[in-house]
Amino acid sequence: MDAELKENLMGALEQVIDPELGIDIVNIGLVYDVDLDEDGLCTVTMTLTTMGCPLAGVLTDQVRVAMSDIPEVKDTKVDLVWTPAWTKDRMSRYAKIALGIR
């Protein structure tokens, strides 16, 4: 997968807003990787801020919808992982400023 396509995929994921924090999942640092195979299967490897997050289903559904806007993506699989664990250190500078985190 070329860099431009990966950038497009990550850009689509920036449209997925965490309803609790009001910031996209990329800037929060929830997305660990995105890949697209030759058959058009997009695999999004991501985590959540907590294991018991009640929004897991909502966020994974929103990821699938966001990926469906990319013509090269035929199907999307969301892999929720817990290693490495999410910490606020994964957040972008933008997200930390928006949430008042230092």
UniProtKB/TrEMBL annotation:
Pfam families given in the database record: FeS_assembly_P (PF01883)
Residue ranges that the Swiss-Prot or TrEMBL entry lists as coiled coil: none
SUPFAM superfamilies: Fe-S cluster assembly (FSCA) domain-like
Superkingdom of this protein's organism: Bacteria
Annotated ranges, domain MIP18 family-like: 6-79
Cited PANTHER family: FE-S PROTEIN MATURATION AUXILIARY FACTOR YITW (PTHR42831:SF1)
Designated name of the protein: Metal-sulfur cluster biosynthetic enzyme
Origin species: Listeria rocourtiae
